[in-house]
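pls ignore typos typing on phone
iron/sulfur cluster + seq
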Amino acid sequence: MTNTAFDCRMCGHCCEGKGGIVVSPADLQRLCAYLRMEADDVIAAYGERVNGKLKIRCGDDGYCIFFRQGKGCIVHEGKPSICKAWPFFRGNIEDAASLALAKDFCPGINPDISHADFASQGIAYLKQENLLADDARTEANALILPDRR
Ligand code: SF4
Ligand code: SF4
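k done
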């Protein structure tokens, strides 16, 4: 039987903290369609520019503005690629030490998964879900895996 690398426990830990949720142009389109709002309105209501990239703002509680305690993500189907991709970020795929830290942070990552199995399952998932990125100006660096497309 396959040793599954990841099974989200819905703890919300990864939705807490500022500045990490990049919204690429394709993400913005998806979010607009989900929210039935124009891009300018979505950006004004929920976005911020950080070093040239569009990101989702944090609420006063320190969580992503789309996170609700007890409910989780209120834009689940329209959420950005970076959210769909976690924990299969470049750092965790390329570096065993980074994966070890991620296991401490995220209870959904199988603590027994080897780095090699995590990486191969992660790359397969990112490809299958079309989550890999290539434009460092507008997309999340964590989704740019050179030579993996
Ligand atoms: S930290 Fe891990 S287990 Fe918790 S919600 Fe995020 S992905 Fe799921
Ligand atoms: S968009 Fe949803 S999944 Fe992504 S950080 Fe915000 S609440 Fe979490």
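Strands lie at 47-50, 53-56, 67-68, 72-73. The first strand starts at residue 47 and ends at 50. more later
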